[in-house]
DNA sequence: TACCAGGAGGTTTTT
DNA sequence: CCTCCTGGTA
């Protein structure tokens, strides 16, 4: 037996050594799926299959990179760089780059990110004289995007009775026209959006038999990761590609399907066995990642979903600690709790920053964690959110590069034509657009023929200088690589100097960002092979093609010793020794947008399942009674998912003494008591000051402490003391319970517990690691 | 044409 | 709380 098969369990080995014919691997969370996939690729190659004939599709660049790296390690040579491993989007972009002229696009077509798409939609909506209050760019974009993912083109859209009815009802009868106009404009701009990369790829294969034939024979073996997250376009494309050889291997877990908003459908994985004859199905059910407690909690929760593929995930790992359920007053307290606990865990269990992950439902939640981590001096990094490439200065700079490579790109042109300021203002731009539309020529064409359109002398000169400059950059493309061109752009446009002269903090940051961008371009030109493993293509075009498809999460320094913050979506496929899942509150998680149908709610639950199964050793689930949202305090019920957790594996010590923390029927009692504050009642900004002011009438639901507690107003300069050497008999002040005397000290050194007799609230046990106590004397 | 102040409106998740 | 857009002024 080959070495690389050692250490695989029976089903894993069976999957890895399967060579010909369709194969479906149902892989539970943490069951060694990546290991199986990489081993299988290595095994194919060890059996004489050429790397050039293997295609592996993933959902993130990171997963692709990891896969390639691991195959390389197993094989111990450079053959792996000939594999076609990448995301659906990047692999198709690369193929489209080669084949684009067939469908009327330039090889150097631009890839529009979401912001670009929305901006095009905005223009198109205006040009059609439609109300942009009704045709909101993001709404329209979502609609168009879903259509494309479902293989519905503009014409099918216009002719679909059901879709038309929907748009009528939503007061957007012209949506089909917008869709059409949007496509026309993108085409005119020589640009494809994210969804086009899939849709056009499908059209290419559908309409050009010779192209289909070529790729069917190139990709004799196809592997698809996270198959449960594929949407109909992706499904059709892979079906076409695999039709001849039928050597298609899909890996997925229906319990982890969390991308239906992007058009993904579990149907694809359920359907797979019908699509091909003799599908071999292998289940990976042994989990190697998590403790039994964690796994049991996960299994118990997912049971509440209907229609799962039957499987039972088990582990030989130790029981481990119970899952900690933690309730705090506000989101800020939640942040503090997490930061404190990280500090404590680092000391107690010798963890490093990099062993922690903080996961949340929405990007906006990162703020409170950030603040606390920063205050504690704990290094962290946020993955996702606004990506580096979406920053204004970076987009502006890249727009220059985009124009140089593809002058049809109107979006990019509009961004840079007056940045840095050169006297071509809004009015001139509007004129240019009108001329372009009238004559049915591109924006750039108007610029090159500016003298024909009667601009004012000053404006004309500015336009001509701009054109000359861009042409100068283009002329450099032939001899110079991407980096050299970019440097020239920075110098020649005064772009870099402009930022350099801005000495404000933000200006400095912008300057540094552009420098970082230049560095990354340099790195690209100097790296021996690009991300697809293809040697040699160091042109600006090649650089731009990959840049739009990069995400923040793809950035390298894997081993940087930082706490990782990200959404649960972004965390899929990852694992961490200690995981915090925050914001377990109704309207947040499950999100208010996703509780209207059973399907939506089940997807939220799968998301929760994904979150829980990221943890290896320790799992903390936290929720806050109230959090700041839109600048005002919002009150939420604990998440319904918390009611689904099995008691046996839970530690509620930290869940505080109120709401739904002992038994689930307490919850309804609490709810009954506070009728009127159920759901998410919003309080005005004014009530934010409430706790400080004696006169303000505090809404009952807001305090959320046990009803018998007498409210204490901490002194204005309340600062928690260091309680390491706290002695019995000392007088202390607690933020909520007021003044009291320490009557007893117990607990371990890392988790000391003080018993305090409070003047107003009686005797309480206080965990010194978490509570804020000020020593009075 | 450029810049600033003031106001409205927006939070789901991502390639 | 934030960002984006508008409309007024220099």
TrEMBL record:
<keyword id="KW-0378">Hydrolase</keyword>
<dbReference type="InterPro" id="IPR000212">
    <property type="entry name" value="DNA_helicase_UvrD/REP"/>
</dbReference>
<dbReference type="GO" id="GO:0005524">
    <property type="term" value="F:ATP binding"/>
</dbReference>
<feature type="domain" description="UvrD-like helicase ATP-binding">
    <location>
        <begin position="6"/>
        <end position="291"/>
    </location>
</feature>
<dbReference type="InterPro" id="IPR013986">
    <property type="entry name" value="DExx_box_DNA_helicase_dom_sf"/>
</dbReference>
<dbReference type="InterPro" id="IPR014016">
    <property type="entry name" value="UvrD-like_ATP-bd"/>
</dbReference>
<dbReference type="GO" id="GO:0000725">
    <property type="term" value="P:recombinational repair"/>
</dbReference>
<dbReference type="GO" id="GO:0005829">
    <property type="term" value="C:cytosol"/>
</dbReference>
<feature type="compositionally biased region" description="Polar residues">
    <location>
        <begin position="681"/>
        <end position="712"/>
    </location>
</feature>
<feature type="domain" description="UvrD-like helicase C-terminal">
    <location>
        <begin position="292"/>
        <end position="573"/>
    </location>
</feature>
<comment type="similarity">
    <text>Belongs to the helicase family. UvrD subfamily.</text>
</comment>
<feature type="binding site">
    <location>
        <begin position="27"/>
        <end position="34"/>
    </location>
    <ligand>
        <name>ATP</name>
    </ligand>
</feature>
<dbReference type="GO" id="GO:0043138">
    <property type="term" value="F:3'-5' DNA helicase activity"/>
</dbReference>
<dbReference type="Pfam" id="PF13361">
    <property type="entry name" value="UvrD_C"/>
</dbReference>
<dbReference type="InterPro" id="IPR014017">
    <property type="entry name" value="DNA_helicase_UvrD-like_C"/>
</dbReference>
<keyword id="KW-0238">DNA-binding</keyword>
<keyword id="KW-0413">Isomerase</keyword>
<dbReference type="GO" id="GO:0003677">
    <property type="term" value="F:DNA binding"/>
</dbReference>
<dbReference type="InterPro" id="IPR027417">
    <property type="entry name" value="P-loop_NTPase"/>
</dbReference>
<feature type="region of interest" description="Disordered">
    <location>
        <begin position="681"/>
        <end position="715"/>
    </location>
</feature>
<dbReference type="Pfam" id="PF00580">
    <property type="entry name" value="UvrD-helicase"/>
</dbReference>
<protein>
    <recommendedName>
        <fullName>DNA 3'-5' helicase</fullName>
        <ecNumber>5.6.2.4</ecNumber>
    </recommendedName>
</protein>
<keyword id="KW-0347">Helicase</keyword>
<keyword id="KW-0547">Nucleotide-binding</keyword>
<dbReference type="Pfam" id="PF21196">
    <property type="entry name" value="PcrA_UvrD_tudor"/>
</dbReference>
<dbReference type="GO" id="GO:0016887">
    <property type="term" value="F:ATP hydrolysis activity"/>
</dbReference>
<dbReference type="GO" id="GO:0033202">
    <property type="term" value="C:DNA helicase complex"/>
</dbReference>
<keyword id="KW-0067">ATP-binding</keyword>
């Amino acid at each position: 037996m080959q070495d690389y098969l050692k250490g695989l369990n029976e089903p894993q080995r069976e999957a890895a050594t399967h060579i010909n014919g369709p194969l479906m691997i149902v892989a539970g969370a943490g069951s060694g799926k990546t290991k199986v996939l990489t081993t299988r690729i290595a095994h194919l190659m060890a059996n004489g299959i050429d790397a050039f004939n293997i295609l592996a599709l993933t959902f993130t660049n990171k997963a692709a990179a990891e896969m390639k790296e691991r195959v390389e390690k197993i094989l111990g040579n450079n053959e792996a760089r000939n594999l076609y491993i990448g995301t659906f989007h990047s692999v198709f972009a690369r193929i489209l780059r080669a084949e684009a002229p067939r469908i009327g696009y330039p090889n150097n077509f631009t890839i529009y990110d979401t912001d670009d798409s929305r901006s095009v939609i905005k223009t198109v909506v205006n040009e059609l004289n439609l109300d942009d209050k009704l045709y909101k760019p993001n709404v329209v974009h979502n609609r168009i995007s879903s259509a494309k993912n479902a293989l519905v083109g503009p014409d099918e859209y216009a002719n679909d009775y059901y879709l038309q009815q929907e748009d009528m009802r939503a007061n957007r009868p012209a949506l089909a026209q917008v869709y059409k106009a949007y496509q026309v404009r993108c085409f005119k701009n020589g640009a494809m959006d994210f969804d086009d990369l899939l849709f056009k790829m499908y059209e290419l294969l559908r309409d050009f038999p010779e192209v289909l034939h070529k790729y069917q024979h190139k990709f004799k073996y196809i592997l698809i990761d996270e198959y449960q997250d594929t949407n109909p376009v992706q499904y059709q494309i892979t079906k076409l590609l695999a039709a001849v050889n039928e050597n298609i291997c899909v890996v997925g877990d229906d319990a982890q399907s969390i991308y239906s908003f992007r058009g993904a459908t579990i149907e694809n994985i359920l359907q797979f066995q019908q699509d091909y004859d003799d599908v071999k199905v292998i289940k990976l059910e042994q989990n190697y990642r998590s403790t039994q407690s964690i796994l049991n909690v996960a299994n118990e929760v997912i049971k509440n979903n209907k229609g799962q593929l039957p499987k039972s995930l088990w582990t030989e790992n130790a029981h481990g600690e119970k899952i900690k359920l933690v309730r705090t007053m506000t989101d800020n307290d939640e942040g503090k709790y997490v930061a404190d606990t990280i500090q404590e865990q680092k000391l107690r269990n010798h963890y490093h920053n990099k062993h922690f992950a903080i996961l949340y439902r929405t990007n906006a939640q990162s703020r409170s964690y950030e603040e606390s981590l920063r205050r504690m001096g704990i290094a962290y990094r946020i993955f996702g959110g606004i990506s580096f490439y979406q920053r204004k200065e970076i987009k502006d700079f890249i727009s220059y590069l985009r124009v140089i490579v593809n002058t049809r790109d109107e979006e990019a042109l509009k961004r840079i034509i007056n940045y840095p300021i050169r006297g071509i203002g809004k009015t001139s731009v509007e004129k240019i657009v009108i001329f372009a539309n009238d004559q049915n020529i591109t924006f750039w064409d108007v610029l090159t023929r500016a003298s024909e359109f009667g601009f004012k002398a000053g404006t004309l000169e500015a336009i001509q200088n701009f054109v000359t400059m861009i042409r100068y950059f283009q002329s450099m493309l032939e001899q110079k690589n991407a980096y050299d061109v970019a440097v020239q752009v920075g110098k020649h446009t005064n772009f870099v100097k402009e930022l350099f002269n801005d000495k404000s903090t933000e200006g400095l940051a912008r300057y540094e960002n552009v420098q970082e961008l230049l560095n990354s371009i340099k790195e690209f030109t100097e790296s021996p092979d690009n991300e697809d493993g293809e040697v040699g293509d160091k042109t600006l075009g090649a650089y731009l093609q990959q840049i739009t498809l990069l995400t923040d999460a793809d950035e390298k320094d894997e081993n940087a010793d930082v706490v990782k913050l990200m959404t649960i979506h972004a965390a899929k496929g990852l694992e961490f020794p200690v995981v915090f899942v925050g914001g377990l509150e109704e309207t947040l998680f499950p999100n208010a947008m996703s509780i209207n149908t059973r399907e939506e709610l089940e997807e939220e639950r799968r998301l929760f399942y994904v979150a829980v199964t990221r943890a290896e050793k320790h799992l903390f689930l936290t929720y806050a009674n109230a959090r700041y949202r839109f600048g005002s305090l919002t009150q939420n019920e604990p998440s319904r998912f918390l009611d689904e957790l099995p008691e046996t594996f839970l530690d509620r010590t930290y869940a505080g003494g109120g709401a739904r923390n002992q038994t689930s029927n307490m919850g309804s009692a609490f709810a009954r008591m506070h009728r009127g504050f159920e759901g998410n009642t919003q309080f005005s900004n004014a009530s934010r000051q409430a706790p400080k002011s004696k006169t303000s009438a505090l809404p009952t639901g807001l305090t959320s402490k046990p009803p018998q507690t007498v409210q204490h107003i901490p002194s204005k300069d309340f600062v928690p003391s260091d309680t390491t050497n706290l002695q019995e008999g000392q007088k202390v002040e607690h933020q909520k319970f007021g003044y009291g005397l320490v009557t007893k000290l117990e607990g371990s050194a890392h988790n000391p517990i003080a018993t305090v007799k409070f003047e107003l609230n009686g005797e309480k046990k206080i965990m010194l690691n978490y509570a804020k106590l000020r020593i009075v004397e």
